[in-house]
Amino acid sequence: MWVTHVGPQTHVNLASAPLLEQVMRQEGKYPVRNDMDLWKEHRDLQGLAYGPFTTQGHHWYQLRQVLNQRMLKPAEAALYTDALNEVIDSFMVRLNEIRAESSSGDQVPDMAHLFYYFALEAICYILFEKRIGCLERSIPQDTAAFVRSVGLMFQNSLYATFLPKWTRPLLPFWKRYLDGWNTIFSFGKKLIDQKLKEIEAQLQAEGPEGVQISGYRHKDFAHMPLLKAVLKETLRLYPVVPINSRVIVEKEIEVGGFLFPKNTQFVLCHYVVSRDPSIFPEPESFQPHRWLKKSQPDTLGVQHPFGSVPFGYGVRACLGRRIAELEMQLLLARLMQQYQVVLAPETGEVKSVARIVLVPNKNVGLRFLQRPC
Ligand code: HEM
Fold it and tell me: Which fold has domain 2-129+214-370?
């Protein structure tokens, strides 16, 4: 446990599983990650409503009650299987095109980039029931502008966090930050408006029974424990969210024998904790089997429940967890069925760097070698 100061803020950093547990178990009914002021400023300026990331208290709770029903119940999330498989079909086609264009005929030079486009296409298809063309050879203009805006918003939010407010009218970062958000919102609004029009037209033509809300089949990964273990082990070594946080707003709390006043900002160092050798023996090595009950009954018994929590914890945990898990399972299963995957020799050693989320420090080139049928 140690304290750091970032600008006017004081952070209490926690890097052990028992300490994380102490904070998380005292987080209360309406947990707060951080105040999200920067995001809220944009919504306030444009008169837009807050979403699950930005809102707090009872309003957040009510929003989650509704969204959890459609996104987190395993049976509900499984309904997205067919939509995801459709996006995976496009992904496999795009992957093949890129392979064919490479000099060896089997190489993809930047996997993270391709996975990013896949994830964006998948979540937009689920949320808006519209394909946005991220996996087409030539990406539609408005989609390309949307993707650029996500990057623009994140890049400039760094300046907006660390530079004083009086620099906003003088330097270009603030306008770029707001422009990024405005394009993101208008892209989303266009898709929602289109969908509403379709529903209205269906209602007029056929009445309430005619409205088709997506209904997909359920697929079961219960018989693929190793596949799930590989994903868990990957997220242990490379947690997408390497650092998370909580502010306990309701009361002062005791952590590690110290008493902290309410509104203390705790930083939860998940990346460090999930490489703790006292919880995960040989923590730097990739051992999916450590997650399989039968193969390691002894070690599984000592794993701390807060050793690796890639989707966070409690009522404020990741809303997209079930969708993300299903997405990764379906895609990995399909890729492994068709290809043997090896690192492209020129890639060399890849390290991870924290850019809000964890990303590779260089392009990851992979070779996809066709398996014999
Ligand atoms: C591998 C993929 C993903 C990982 C590892 C991940 C991880 C996380 C983590 C660690 C948090 C913070 C939880 C906490 O504070 O306890 C979070 C929050 C959140 N995630 Fe994810 N996430 C993933 C994918 C997604 C997807 C695909 C969606 C969208 C459907 C999504 C939507 C959200 C939302 C809305 C929140 C904020 C929830 C709230 O504050 O109530 N995530 N995620």
Answer: Cytochrome p450 (1.10.630)
Residue 214 pLDDT grade (very low, low, confident, very high; cuts 50, 70, 90): very low
> What separation in Å is there between the alpha carbon of 321 and the centre of ligand 1?
6
Q: Which residue, by CA, sits nearest to atom 36 of ligand 1? A: 318
| Integer CA distances (angstroms), 112 to 72, 167, 364, in order | 26, 34, 7
Helix (H) or strand (E) holding 265: strand 265-269
**How far does residue 319's CA lie from ligand 1's centre (Å)?**
5
Decide the pairing of beta strands 352-355 and 357-360.
antiparallel
CB of 319 sitting under 6 A from ligand 1: yes
Ligand 1 atom 9, closest CA:
311
Distance set, CA 206 to CA 61, 200, 214, 216 (Å): 36, 10, 17, 21
CB 244 less than 6 A from any atom of ligand 1: yes
pLDDT tens-place string over residues 278-332: 999 999 999 999 999 765 555 554 679 999 999 999 999 999 999 999 999 999 9
Output the residue whose Cα is nearest ligand 1's atom 4: 311
Q: Domain spans of the chain?
A: 2-129+214-370
